[in-house]
């Protein structure tokens, strides 16, 4: 019941309107939104990047936040030139498929995060997809934030709304946005690990229910593969977060760095959970293989017991089937019933002995 409740809550959350979907963008196929913020308040949106940056620099305060979804080189070239982004960071933002990191290029901080989503399924199978990953790149400068999203999930629409509801936090500038994004990513990791725990509980219950099938090993291996994908997305983020939390930077206010330390602590919790899940799945797999071995041994004992029972009439019939001329009881009237009776009695005795010893 608790598992079904968690699943319902996750589905309800996923039905939230995706404000960062490219189809909703009034600015083109890649630019999702372009908003100017002054003193934490939203000023103008749906404007050209050049106009937004001009207004911010004319005011001498605030910043512009541009969101993009899977831009190609041509679409991103204008933005990169306008904000003087380093070509190596631009290349990473366009091609994607990079490890989480945080690098400083001149006056611009470039960070890469892995977005993670739990794939709902009614029942875990040996081919079920459990974890879906994407990427989110963030360029943070003195007066701008540029987010580049790759993948089907990782929407920043709800995050933007939450920040706009707290103008005092948003007024702290691009560093506050960078922290909110990092915190949002780690919160998603926590949600995914909670969901995976339901799958692990289901596999564990199936293995120890006494009715485990030979296909349980496939389910466990699939879950371990999906857990490995989650680990690849989460574990490399530890070093960038520690870097953001401890290394002095002109782009990060010391007050904001305290928040990054809190995010780093949450990430450590996720990493520990993943390691614990992996160890638990190893134990469950070993237990399942031990059960399979025990079942095979029981099958072999039954086969051996029946083979021993069948060996009795086989031996007797083999002796009397040698067709020698002079053999006892061959011409005796009660020879055949006696042999059959002896065979039945011996087989019954052997069967009872095996039953008493638990072989049958």
List the helices and strands and how they pair.
Layout: H1 2-14, E1 31-38, E2 41-45, H2 49-59, E3 63-69, H3 73-82, H4 87-95, E4 101-105, E5 108-118, E6 131-140, E7 144-150, H5 157-164, H6 167-170, H7 174-207, H8 216-234, H9 238-246, H10 254-320, H11 335-356
Pfam families: CorA
InterPro entries: CorA_cytoplasmic_dom (IPR045861), CorA_TM1_TM2 (IPR045863), MgTranspt_CorA/ZnTranspt_ZntB (IPR002523)
Keywords: Cell membrane, Ion transport, Magnesium, Membrane, Transmembrane, Transmembrane helix, Transport
Average of per-residue pLDDT values = 82
The biggest beta sheet reads:
7 strands, mixed
Q: What is the CA–CA distance across the termini?
A: 40 Å
Helix content: 55-70%
Give a short overview.
Helix 9 runs antiparallel to helix 10. The relative contact order is 0.09.
3D structure, described in words:
- The protein is an alpha+beta fold and about 350 residues long.
- The protein folds into 2 domains: about 15-290, Beta Polymerase, domain 2 (2-Layer Sandwich), CATH 3.30.460; about 295-355, Up-down Bundle (Methane Monooxygenase Hydroxylase, Chain G, domain 1).
- It has helices at about 1-15, 50-60, 75-80, 85-95, 155-165, 165-170, 175-205, 215-235, 240-245, 255-320, 335-355, and strands spanning about 30-40, 40-45, 65-70, 100-105, 110-120, 130-140, 145-150.
- The protein has a 7-stranded mixed sheet, sandwiched between helices.
- The two termini are about 40 Å apart.
- Residues about 10-30 have low confidence and may be disordered.
């Amino acid at each position: 019941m608790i598992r079904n409740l968690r699943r319902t809550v996750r589905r309800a959350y996923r039905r939230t309107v995706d404000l960062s979907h490219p189809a909703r963008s009034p600015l083109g196929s890649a630019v999702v939104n372009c908003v100017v913020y002054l003193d934490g308040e939203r000023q103008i949106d749906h404007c050209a990047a050049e106009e937004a940056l001009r207004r911010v620099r004319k005011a001498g305060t605030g910043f512009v936040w541009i969101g993009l979804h899977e831009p190609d080189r041509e679409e991103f070239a204008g933005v990169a030139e306008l904000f003087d982004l380093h070509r190596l960071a631009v290349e990473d933002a366009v091609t994607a498929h990079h490890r989480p990191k945080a690098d400083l290029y001149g006056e611009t901080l470039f960070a890469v995060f892995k977005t993670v989503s739990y794939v709902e399924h009614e029942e875990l199978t040996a081919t079920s997809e459990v974890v879906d990953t994407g990427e989110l790149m963030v360029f943070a400068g003195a007066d701008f934030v540029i987010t580049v999203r790759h993948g089907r999930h990782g929407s920043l629409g709800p995050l933007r709304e939450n920040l706009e509801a707290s103008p005092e936090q948003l007024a702290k500038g691009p560093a506050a946005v960078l922290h909110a994004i990092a915190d949002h990513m780690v919160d998603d990791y926590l949600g995914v690990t909670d969901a995976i725990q339901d799958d692990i509980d289901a596999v564990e219950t199936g293995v120890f229910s006494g009715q485990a099938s030979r296909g349980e090993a496939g389910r466990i291996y699939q879950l371990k593969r999906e857990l490995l994908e989650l680990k690849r997305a989460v574990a490399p983020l530890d070093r960038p977060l520690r870097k953001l939390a401890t290394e002095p930077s002109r782009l990060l206010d010391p007050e904001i760095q305290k928040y990054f330390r809190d995010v780093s602590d949450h990430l450590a919790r996720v990493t520990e959970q993943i390691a614990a899940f992996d160890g638990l799945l190893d134990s469950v797999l070993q237990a399942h293989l031990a059960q399979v071995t025990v079942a095979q041994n029981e099958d072999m004992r039954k086969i051996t017991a029946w083979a021993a029972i069948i060996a009795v009439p086989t031996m007797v019939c083999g002796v009397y089937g040698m067709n020698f001329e002079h053999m006892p009881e061959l011409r005796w009237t009660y020879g055949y019933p006696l042999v059959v009776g002896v065979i039945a009695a011996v087989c019954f005795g052997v069967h009872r002995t095996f039953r008493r010893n638990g072989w049958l």
